[in-house]
Design goal:
By secondary structure, this protein is of the alpha/beta class. It contains 19 helices and ten strands. A hairpin with a 2-residue loop joins strand 3 and strand 4. Helix 10 crosses helix 11. The longest helix has 22 residues. Bound molecules: adenosine-5'-diphosphate and magnesium ion. Magnesium ion binds next to helix 2.
Length: 417
Amino acid sequence: MEESIILISQNRSNYGYIQQNDEFDYLKNLIKSVEEGTCMGVLLHGPPGTGKTLLAITLANSFNAHYYIIDGSPDLDRRDIEGYWELFKGETRFNFGPLTRAIEDANKKGISFIIINEVNAIRESEQISLNSLLSENHLNLISKGFERYELNPKSKLVIIGTLNKGVIGINKLQEAFEDRFIASPEIDYPIKPKEIEIATKMSGCDRKLAEIVVDAARQIRKQATKDFSITKIFSTRLVVNFCLVVSSMPPKFLRNNIENIIINKLGENQEEKKSIAMILDGKMFESKLRGVLSPEGNSKVIQEEEIELSETEEQRIITNMKKHVIKYIHFYKQDNALKKNGGIMWKFIDWFWCYNRKTFQDYIFLTKKKGLHELYKKDTGKNYLFRGEITLNYIKWLYRYKKQELMNFMKNDSPIF
Ligand SMILES: Nc1ncnc2c1ncn2[C@@H]1O[C@H](COP(=O)(O)OP(=O)(O)O)[C@@H](O)[C@H]1O
Ligand SMILES: [Mg+2]
């Protein structure tokens, strides 16, 4: 494999998965314990928003390994996940898919991870593709007469599939496939003090605020399972998101936030919305929250630091980005990589976001000097950073609405072409 297509996918949030008991330690040890030369599989079961994907990512990070995420969907076909050969200007070339990339990576670095979200959404015919990997440590590439693609005897490949319980309308796992995963831990909603800890740490909000939100979430969850008057579940993800938003916004928007983030999101119809609102009223949710929100509208304990970069740091970021642009152009071949007029295409952004995210985020951070982040805030009401990281939404916005400025930035202000 060419140097140019190594994936870098590292999570940079301050906190990774916070374990409820010892599930993280257990899985880490389990992965350590398997023999080299093996592809091992783990299936994480549990309701949505309990941190399954985050657990998988945190495990990969703890091994300093690259990870490749596949979002399970019935539209995926084998060629997508395995990669495929194609004829390009008279030459055949291989387009890597996440599975082949991960094998390459494991072979080079000793270990890599594949994370498959909602693995049961993958069609049965595609589950087969993973079977040979899990039981015989190689792939049989469908696009090239089942040519073998093999994990070397010194490396490990870890496949972590996540499954949401209770989501209907998607495929069951074939028994033969399920059988090949060696462990199936269940991840359920955390106990109360744990969920408060998760909400506090992940959102950076005040502990008292987290306590009020967790308390309400648990009450609504209880109601949902008791008489089915609420269909959707108040997940830990929602708890964290709500805490994050409410603690970052002025209290005058509290009502809007309660309505939009909790009531309208959870309630499928008017009746459900009413019952959620009633539970919240019964708990004096809004007034309790008002009591803990500071009038300046920032209840965050950890403030997001606005980093000022030095000249040399800035140069380093541009140089690094340039290096990757050369790889990108090499990968897509000159006349296919950029528009005729030298402009960028969406695939440019996509490639960087998938394969060199950190480099790209650091580079886009430099648009701050042009004040584009402020325009973004004005336009959308959103912050260009999330936990200190440039968001994909900000990049999308730049690409869609500020293309000229973006090109100017890339060509003249912080040139990379
Ligand atoms: N145990 C946990 N530790 C840290 N964050 C958690 C935990 N459980 C839920 N979260 C929060 O929920 C979000 C969604 O988690 P995710 O991994 O996508 O859930 P799932 O894959 O189970 O649907 C996380 O980004 C995090 O904010
Ligand atoms: Mg998930």
